[in-house]
């Protein structure tokens, strides 16, 4: 028997790691992977709450989150390829045309 | 007892992978540690009884999505990330703010859910039951998702295709 809060704390740690990576990483692909890490943390809390409330719809939602994440990964990586083609760099600090 | 030991072992592996993702400079190392995180998360799902979700996690996340990532890293020949100075506001406000926020959320979660425990395989999510729900109660969202995936595929093809490819085709 594992307290449900352990699962939630684990998912919180994963989400915090994702946010930290999003802030400190400079490589655009690493930033994208941090977003995936955040999505995974949220998925774990969905499954944990589904087990707590005995509601299978939580697991269905995880399925939908995964589908959206896969679609997002496909489009996002295509955007990264397009950015690399025009700017010749993966460093997020060098893609700053919108910066004042 | 074994349940707790397996949970703690794979939870530690998960957190180690996540921290390694932050520490590594080379994106390919980050990608491989993300695979470790996703694999150990699949074991946590199995512990909660979500068999279908665990299988999809391994196949879609650790399989398909990460292959896409590794493929793009190799394609763009991504080297070690260069260290440029990030924004000072993010350093001064972001990190303490995030620490305070995560402590608050953790304290609230532990306080609210209390000592409620969950047994191994508490809510069996076999492919059969999940599939039944998916094609009865959640049929409309399921179909909408398929349209979303179709749009994403077309968008990826349009975005990643070479900009000169169109004009070449017209000229020839």
Which properties best describe this structure?
heterodimer, A: 100 residues, mainly alpha, B: 172 residues, 7 helices, 79% helix
By DSSP, the count of extended strands of chain A is 1
Cα-based radius of gyration of chain B, to the nearest Å: 21 Å
Query: What's the total helix number of chain B?
Result: 7
General form of chain B: globular
Helical content of chain B stands at over 70%
Question: How far is it from the N-terminal to the C-terminal residue of chain B, by CA?
Answer: 70 Å
User: What's the shape of chain A?
Assistant: elongated
Low-pLDDT stretches of chain B are none
User: Between the first and last Cα atoms of chain A, what is the distance in angstroms?
Assistant: 55 Å
Provide the low-confidence segments of chain A as ranges: none
Query: What fraction of the residues of chain A are assigned to beta strands by DSSP?
Result: under 5%
Average pLDDT of chain B works out at: 85
Query: What summary fits the major beta sheet of chain A?
Result: none
Task: Output the helix-strand order of chain B.
Answer: HHHHEHHH
**SSE order of chain A in H/E notation?**
EHHH
The oligomerization state is heterodimer
Write a short abstract of this structure.
The complex is a heterodimer of chains A (100) and B (172). With 100 residues, chain A is an all-alpha fold.
